[in-house]
Here is the input.
Amino acid sequence: MQKLAIIIIALISFQLSAQTTIIGKVFNTKNEPIAGANVYLEGTYDGSTSGADGSFLFETSDNGIQTLVVSFLSYETFTMVSDVTHMKDIIVKLREDVSALDAVVLSAGTFSAGDNSKVNVLKPLDVVTTASALGDFVGALQTLPGTTTVAEDGRLFVRGGDANETQIFIDGIRVFTPYSPTTNNTPTRGRYSPFLFDGITFSTGGYSAEFGQALSSVLLLNTIDEPDQEKTDIGIMSLGATLGNTQKWDKSSLSVNASYINLAPYNAIFKNRNDWIKPFETASGEAVYRKKTNLGLFKLYGAFDATNFELTQEDINEPERAYFKLTNNNVYLNGSYQGVLNDTWTLFGGISYTHSENNLNIIESTINDTENSLHAKVKLKNRISNRLKIYFGAEYFATDFEETYNDEAIDKVNYGYNNNIAAAYAEADIFLSKELAFKTGFRAEYSALFKEFTLAPRLSLAYKTTSKSQVSLAYGNFYQNPSSNILKFNQELKAENTSHYIFNYQYNVDRKLFRAEAYYKTYDNLVKYDTDFTNFDSNYNNNGSGFARGIDFFWRDSKSIKNFDYWLSYSFLDTERDYKNYLTKAQPNFANTHNLSLVGKYWVDKWRSQVGFSYTHASGRTFTNPNESGFLNEKTKAFNSLSLNWAYLISPQKILYASVNNVLGYKNINGYQYANTPGINGDFNRRALQPAADQFFFVGFFWTISEDKKSSQLDNL
Here is the structure.
């Protein structure tokens, strides 16, 4: 027995000593690491997958000359024939698969900006270099087809849908309060700085089953996975100041941004139609921490902002003007992890928390509300083959909303709601050939508030007609619970519903892109009430309905004229709905029949400058004239605005930037306010609802201090 034990130990020792470790890293031709690449020895079971930093490591008992194979979707397969003892510290460069680049793309209703997108309608820097956008990603997206110009609001209105029908996500996790607070007839802005984002997907309809609680649109913002270098960004502006810093370590990095905005100096120089007691002031900060693991990437994103202002505004029913005061504090936290489980499976998980407080004083009323919201999500992806990918996911939404109301007649009324939604989805991408592919799936949701279960199918198909063009079809059913303005007063309702039908044609060749998309949407179960505004004593029901149909065109050309890049978008919208307190089905007052945008950017070498312009035209919007019969019976005049911007490079890292919105001073009218009671002649008097100022001027100096001494904030302006 002793001899046998000695023999067994010797054999095990020999086996262990015969193991050879194979180690290396996988990159693309841009020296970016590739995660999830399949690495193995041909004809053996020995292999691994690359981690988030592209590294791989595995052991083999085979010896001598062997063939190492490295493969990844959309890249040419790499092979290396060598003795296994020489397979140390291998650097593998995978080249993009040309045939994969020519393959069909599922893109109906979707505009993408980012290096991971096959067809970029917008590039990352476009989001913040558009003249009319003033550094707001929402402002840039409003130049795309499918959006509607609602100048006094500032949020995204998409294809006949209200702004509440668009949901925003950061790194796949829901943002519950994405916009800064504002006052009447003054457009809001997105809360979050574009400086920390490198990928944007804007879907105007027919989107994946992964996303729910959005009737019209989803906007996906992805933070930078890994900064390219350490740097400090300094901004001094006519409205305030910004400061940003990025630090990098071996497997982690941290980016922070802080800003302070105060409109008091600006309003002292440029008067507007508001009478400011305390001009708009906000302090905000954001941070992203990233940590690489062997098989994935962890991100922690946090943002805080505090806003306050006080003013009086003209009001036809308030001879002493209408008093308005607001303070707001908002906190948003978002944590996520994405990693590789094995050769075919990847995992994503994340959670977000939002806390928002608003304290409002409106004329003689006081309104205080608090919202706490949570979103938790997990999803799995299995790449069975290059032709088949399947996705599974589950998520949970929770919202606790409380509000207190006071005025001279009512003493401290408390109300609110708790809303919990559980959801799950399954989806598959199926590539029948390089020319034909489709995505199919469904989403199931359960609302604890309504005790209601919904099932929403999704389907999209794409066919490549030529090497440069393709057509796409998309269908989807979508559900969304009513907004807080309704749920805080009544919870005996059910989810609103819409169905999307989309046909898309796309042509892309040599930095020129053309898109045309026709769509039809139906609305059911829209909430109606019988008072001017949502109130305690309103009667609510789900008897509303509507439709929206139209066609969108987009053309972009960055090739024909040297140093000049421009795009043109046009949308035709025909929509009617019966909801809220509408007397009959009619075109909503936020919907324009015609929307046109033209954006151009030109680099002037001699001036070391980038000059740009943005022109917007929108047809008139409906309003109700009580002096005439009918509901929403008249339209305003058309909206027009031409904006210009100029960025001058003082040095490679110092930029002087200036812009002016509505440079020609068009007197745009957003609508009309009528008196509550008729005058002596029996007619209702009115006043035009105009912007607080017809023009807006901006000047800033931006300085970057970086390792390469070349990077600047031009991409962010």
User: Anything to note?
Assistant: The chain is about 5% helix and 55% strand. Residues 2-97 form a domain with the Immunoglobulin-like fold (CATH 2.60.40.1120).
